[in-house]
Write a structure and sequence with these properties.
Length: 115
Amino acid sequence: QVQLVESGGGLVQPGGSLRLSCVVSGRIFSPNNMGWYRQAPEKARELVAGMTSGGSTNYADSVKGRFTISRDNAKNTVYLQMNSLKPEDTAVYYCQFWSFGHNYWGRGTQVTVSS
């Protein structure tokens, strides 16, 4: 089994920054993908950013240039640095881990962007 624990969410003003962290534990194999999704009220869950164990990244168009995903493979941790936050970034952010056809999710952390 694989467990994911997110941290770093909170309330921030528009234009502010937050950094999310997700620690993955359990039976971890490579190669694998780690990423962040988000779900706003009454909307579908969407990919925010993803990163392979080899370092390739992909981002949603709405966050390109503002968000940066990174990972520390030694610590089995993935990060999401979020800058220039907008009210439309408000959502529950979920960490995701994928390896050999198995997909795992964290419980989510709330990010609220409001003045």
